[in-house]
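Notebook, bench 3.
Goal today: get a predicted structure for TPR repeat from Microvirga makkahensis so we can plan the truncation constructs. The sequence was checked against the plasmid map this morning, with no discrepancies at the termini. Length recorded as 397 residues. Pasting the sequence as submitted so the record is complete.
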Amino acid sequence: MSTIRLLKLGQVALSAKVETPGFVTGLEALKIASSRGDRTATRMLGKVMTRHQISMASNGPKRIESRLRYEAMRGASSSVLAVAGMYDRGDGVPVDTRKAAEWYLWAARVGNRRAMANVAYAYGTGRGVERNEEAALKWLEEVNPGRRRMTLVDIGWALVNGSEGSVDMPAALRFFERAAQISPNVAYQVALDLERGTKGAQNREAAGHLIKVAAERGDSAAATHLANMLAGSDKPEDQRQAVQWYGLAAQDKENSAAGQGLSRLLALRPNSDLVPSIVAGLEKAAAAGNHEALIGLAQAYSEGRGVEASPERAASLLQRAADAGIPEAKYRLGLMYKSGIGVGMDLSKAIELMSSAQESGFPLAAVALSSMIDQSSTSSVPEQAAPKAEEGGTAVK
């Protein structure tokens, strides 16, 4: 097969997914063309190797390395990076982290951003160079946010587990906090792994710190987690903070747990000084579209807690939540229609709502529905007519 044809096949390997037929065929085509001395094929092979970290150990790595070195000397940064990867992984050559770091630095200095991330990892963990946190962060400045975040997390875990020789939790937390500036959710996921010990190390204190960092950066799941931890405390200050975190988290309309948390706090009848803050949080959450918060707010209006009592307003809020499919709202609104509080009494409507709540799995709906059906059956039986007096006679009294 001609070299031109091989290069066309090899081009597919640059964009195809690993292990697909096109990728496998393209990679083999590049190896053949490179072995013929084609420089374009060698450069393309270097790109594929660095992009997918392909092992070349069974394909004459010494010869490949020499060809990649040749292209590297002529300015092909991907070839430089490919050689660095071979030394880093021990791909057909002995593992040599110092040499790998030198090659990564070479590629980084000519502008290869993938290499910059590798250099940052080396400085952050001490892999092949002396640890230097400032240098690690500097090399990450020009790396795209996604790769920067991933590298920061990788450095952090290496320092947590000592996989590169150094264990340094304070430094690890600093790298994780940097990642949180890019994506708060990443810090929260790291915190969960540290809390559960799912990545080889368990540290609940560090986990708690990162949960707070993620919450402060705006991650609603982290804020809910933090609120859940504080809500179980007997300390007034912890309770106050729980209300604040639930309130912030519940402004994410998709965070039903936060809306439920605020409503639950109100149902537990907290100290009167917390009620205004809870109601304010429910108001903001409801305005943001958090349907679970509507239930707690309806309870406040129903009982006159923190607001002027208004059964009508409570029913209106429950109707909004019921329209959104919230089973508890259907249950509560059904009770209001049964009793005629805040709405006109309508047993048929009450049964309809309660049936829907039961179908959605709300546990209290079945009993309530049974009593409603019994009431409906009783009220539908006509009263027995009084016996008529026989014609010409007197009715029996």
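The chain is about 70% helix and 0% strand. Residues 159 and 168 are 5 Å apart (CA to CA).
Flagging this for group meeting.
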